[in-house]
Amino acid sequence: MKKHELLSKVLRTFALSLLVATVGLYMGQWVPPALFLPLVILEFILLISVFFLRKAKKIGYGFLFLFTFISGLTLYPAISYYISSIGATTVLMVLGVTTVIFIVLSLYAWKTKRDLSFLGGILMSALLALILVWLIHIFFNLGSAAILVITLISVVIFSGFIIYDINKIKNGHFNEKDVPLLALNLYLDFINLFLDLLRLVKILKDD
């Protein structure tokens, strides 16, 4: 399969995964509040299993769409919160901005002649550090200024992941069996960037 054909299929699958997540988000309004924590735990378990399944190339379309559907369900409380606090119009505007950023970064990653595979280790280390800081914040409450800085750093990290994952498709050795995993990577990049931008808008509005 040619690189541009692979990218096209990955992007179609990524778009479909967003649609599945949207269905999950819509259905989240009927999920009892007591079930959200078990769903979050299930989502976390599935996310952890990705690290093991991808080595054996056992991530298929069923796994991808199961994960994105559950992700959509668990997103419902967060999206509802942002709709109530910053307004549905603003949430949609942030979604549009996220989409534009995704497209621009993807075009750069695909058009550049550089192999950006070196970013993988840097971004993963930065992500682990970010998770550690968030855990510290949960227990010690670092304050709104720190959260603003953390959120900005998170925006940069997931923007970097978009560039890295698209560039990886161009320069890596993948085939059709890898499409679900590659689409899942892009889904996680997009959703995390979207949530970061929503958080950023909320922080700036409160200030």
Computed CA radius of gyration, to the nearest angstrom: 17 Å
How many domains is the backbone divided into?
1
Write down how many β-strands occur, each being a DSSP E stretch of 2 or more residues. 0
Provide the residue-averaged pLDDT: 91
Largest β sheet strand count, sense and barrel closure? none
Q: What is the distance, rounded to the nearest whole angstrom, between the alpha carbons of the first and last residues?
A: 51 Å
Shape: globular
> What low-confidence regions span 5 or more consecutive residues with pLDDT below 50?
none
Compressed to H and E, one letter per element, the order equals HHHHHHH
Pfam families: Bax1-I
Protein name: Bax inhibitor-1/YccA family protein
Membrane topology: Multi-pass membrane protein
Organism: Pontibacillus salipaludis
Polypeptide structure, described:
The chain is mainly alpha-helical. The protein has one domain. The chain is 83% helix and 0% strand. It has seven helices and no strands. 26% of the residues are buried. The model has no long low-confidence stretch (mean pLDDT 91).
